[in-house]
Design a protein that fits this description.
The chain is mainly α. It folds into two domains: about 70 residues, Zinc Finger, Delta Prime, domain 3 (Up-down Bundle), CATH 1.20.272; about 35 residues, no CATH class. The chain is built from eight helices and no strands. α6 packs across α7.
């Protein structure tokens, strides 16, 4: 099984043809994830866009295009991850009946005192087990 980062390393740096060396690994190639990984670098985002414009190409052709056209270079980019919900965002969502996106926007506008008031309003009271 060929890992995602093996394909990305092959496209970015080593230029080794993994699919021709092991034809069974073509099933491990996921064009969507490879494009997402490459699109996190400014110098490769246009190559990813070209692949998005041509969804009919098979996996071998997409891999070959990226491997042969992306300039050889080590690229380091953090993968974009969705922020985990904090209890402040959950309180805002519950109090105002907002979506997650809207709650994040509201969090930027609210002060710490306002958030504490919201949490106090939502507190059901009673004893807590500690």
């Amino acid at each position: 099984m060929t890992a995602l980062f093996d394909f990305l390393n092959s496209i970015n740096h080593s230029k080794e043809d993994l699919i021709r060396n092991d034809p069974d690994c073509v099933k491990d190639y996921n064009p969507f994830i490879i494009n997402r990984g490459l699109s996190m670098n400014l110098d490769t985002i246009l190559y990813c866009n070209e692949m998005n414009l041509r969804p009919g190409l098979d996996k071998q052709q997409q891999y070959d295009f990226l491997r042969l056209s992306v300039p050889k270079r080590k690229r380091y980019a953090k993968w974009a991850k969705k922020d985990t919900s904090s209890e402040d965002i959950e309180a805002i969502k519950s109090y105002y009946k907002y979506s997650s996106e809207r709650a994040v926007e509201a969090l930027e506008l609210l002060t710490a005192d306002m958030i504490n008031i919201i949490k106090g309003e939502l507190d059901p009271g009673g004893r807590r087990n500690r």
